[in-house]
C-alpha cells in the first residue's frame, strides 16, 4: 500500500477497511479540524483549509477496468467475477467507460473557476471511492503539496452526493478513514466533509428549470394533453435497502423517522419542483417518487416502486411522463442506462410520451452551490443564514453518532461523532 513518504508511487488502489479510528485528545470527532473537533452540529466559526478534495464514486475508463472496478464496489462481499460480469453489461455497452469521470473533471474545472471568481485561493484535488484517482492518491497529494509546519494539513471533502444515506454519506466518511489509515496520516491530515445539500437552491433550481422545460415541450408537441390527467412527473431516486433508508440521516431530532431521511428528503425535493410547476401552470400535475438501479441479493428488500414497474402500470392511465433523476448530480451510467435506455423503452412499450430532465451537471447555479458549501465553512456562516429550502436543511457539518448506518457494523469514519 502506498504511503505519503513514497515519492515514486505510480500505482494506487482502494484500501482495505480501517481496523482502527484515531481521535485526538479532547476531540469528539476523528481526524477533524479544531473547529469541528468538538462535535457541534454546525461549525459557525471560520475554518482555515489548505485544500479541497472533490470526492466521488468513480468509474472504469476501459473494458479492462470494469471487473476490477466492480470488485472494489463490492469489496468484502465475496461476489464471484461471473456474477460481476452479469452486472458489467451496462459498462460493456459503453465501451467500458463510465461518463462519471469526465463529468467530474468538468465539475472540478467549473468549481475552480467559481473559486477564482470569489477570490478563494484553494487548490482542488479529485479523488474517488472505487477507481482511479483513489482517495489515497488525492489525500496524499493534497498533504504533500500543502504542508504547513507545525500542524496537520486541513482538507475540505466536497462530496458529490446530496442526500442522507449510507452510500452517500457514511460510506464516504468511512473511505476517508480507510485512506488515512492506509497512508498512516491520522496525525498529519484532518478531513471535514461537506454537509448534505439536497435542498440547496443551487441543486433544486436546475431540476425546476428542466421540469418546466419538459412540460413546455410536451404542451407544444401534444397540444391536446390535459396536464392534470394525462401527464405524470416521476422523481427517480436511486433505490437503497429499506433498512438503510430507516437508518439514514441524523438519528436525534428530525421528524422523519417513519419515512426515513433519504425518502423524506427526495419527497421534499419533489414537492419543491412541483410547487414551481403549479405556480407556472396553475394546475396540480400528478407526481410520484419512484426508484431505480436496485442491486443486491433478492432476499434484501429495497425501496419501491421500481420505475419500470410503475411505468407499466400507467398504460391507459396517462399519455406522457416526465422523469426527474432527483438523486443524481450528473448524467452518468445509471442515468444513461436505467433512464435513457431501459425506462424509455418501457415507456415506449406503454405508449407514453417520454421526457427526461437533465441533471445539474455544471449548471452555473449548481457550481455556485458547491462553492457555497466551501464558503460556509471558510466564513463560519451561521446555520440560520445558510441556503436551504426545506424544514430538513441545512444539513449538519458534523454528523451525529450513528448517522446513516448501513446494514453492516459501524466502521471507522471521519466527519462525525463516534461511533
From TrEMBL:
Gene3D superfamilies in alphabetical order: 3.40.50.1400
Principal subcellular localization: cytoplasm
Residues involved in Fe(2+) binding: 238, 334
Pfam families assigned: Ferrochelatase
EC number: 4.99.1.9
Example GO biological process: heme biosynthetic process
Annotated positions binding Fe-coproporphyrin III: 57, 98, 172
Iron as UniProt keyword: yes
Keywords recorded for this protein, A-Z: Cytoplasm, Heme biosynthesis, Iron, Lyase, Metal-binding, Porphyrin biosynthesis
GO terms for MF: ferrochelatase activity; metal ion binding
Subcellular location(s) per record: Cytoplasm
InterPro entries xrefs: Ferrochelatase, Ferrochelatase_C, Ferrochelatase_N
SUPFAM superfamilies, alphabetized: Chelatase (SSF53800)
Listed pathway(s): Porphyrin-containing compound metabolism; protoheme biosynthesis
Family label: Belongs to the ferrochelatase family.
Functional note: Involved in coproporphyrin-dependent heme b biosynthesis. Catalyzes the insertion of ferrous iron into coproporphyrin III to form Fe-coproporphyrin III.
Protein name, UniProt field: Coproporphyrin III ferrochelatase
Lineage, uppermost ranks: Bacteria, Bacillati, Actinomycetota, Actinomycetes, Micrococcales
